[in-house]
Amino acid sequence: MIVAGVFIGVNNTVTTQAVMTVSPVERPVASASYGFVRFIGGGLAPFVAGRLAEHFDSQHAPFYLGAAAVLLGAVILTAAHRQLGEAERAQAAELAAAGPVTARRERLEESALAEDLGSAT
């Protein structure tokens, strides 16, 4: 459980940073939207898994759906890899141009967001 939790925590942090980096809206809006999608999915997953198992009369159906979702996510991340890199470079250039005070505030905001997400999991 602990080892799995480490991987989930790292994945959560990396995914959250990627979402915040490429989002065209302000950070609070992106964070709230991302949190809503993530937690509504976590709340609906047990219900949907049960319905899938009943409908297909197979305990394996939810796992097949999960595997398909993972593959789809890998395809999307592979396709969006270039955009993520461009967004990170643009964000770094913007922070450098804004000066040290803004860059420090941005790092503090990211640190606070990481702490909030870490305590939510």
Summarize the topology:
Blueprint: H1 2-22, H2 27-56, H3 61-98, H4 100-120
Protein name: Major facilitator superfamily (MFS) profile domain-containing protein
InterPro entries: MFS_trans_sf (IPR036259), YfmO-like (IPR053200)
Keywords summarizing the entry:
121 residues; mainly alpha; elongated; MFS_trans_sf
Architecture overview:
InterPro entries: MFS_trans_sf (IPR036259), YfmO-like (IPR053200). This is Major facilitator superfamily (MFS) profile domain-containing protein. This protein is mostly helical. The protein has one domain (2-120). Helix content is 91%, strand content 0%.
Short overview:
91% of the residues lie in helices and 0% in strands.
Overall helicity = over 70%
**What is the total tally of β strands?**
0
Shape: elongated
Helix/sheet category: mainly alpha
Radius of gyration: 18 Å
Protein name: Major facilitator superfamily (MFS) profile domain-containing protein
